[in-house]
What does this fold into?
Amino acid sequence: MVENRPGAGGNIGTQSDARAAKDGYTLLLTINSAQAINPALYKNPGFDPVNDFVPLYYIGATPYVLVSPPGSPYKTLADVVAAAKKKPGELSYASAGNGTISHLLGAMLNVSAGIEMQHIPYKGVAPAINDVLGGQVLLAFAQSAICSQLH
It folds into this structure.
């Protein structure tokens, strides 16, 4: 049986599995940020990434991309950086939520490019991409596998 437990950057589902009986019947399929990043971002994520889990298998990697809606003036990263430099704090980007990889990618771009884009956290990547497609927000960081379905 599959139990999807999204939220809190992966903490909710990860906490649930950490509390499950250690009987060999419960598996956690998660993104690496829940294990590698969340313990540094949250005072008490509700699990110990080293002692509560035994890694079994590496499934794969999915690159992240910065996307904009059809008809957007932002065709390249250089376009985004130039616009953000002209109007600091006015350009915004959507993410899958606070503390997620997509949030941190925007923060890293702000620092590395010397810009100030505003973060708009969503409750998951699907609603963020929906609002990008609808033009409510002009940019989002998301997994390329999700964005490949946007053609």
Summary: The chain is about 35% helix and 10% strand. The mean pLDDT is 89.
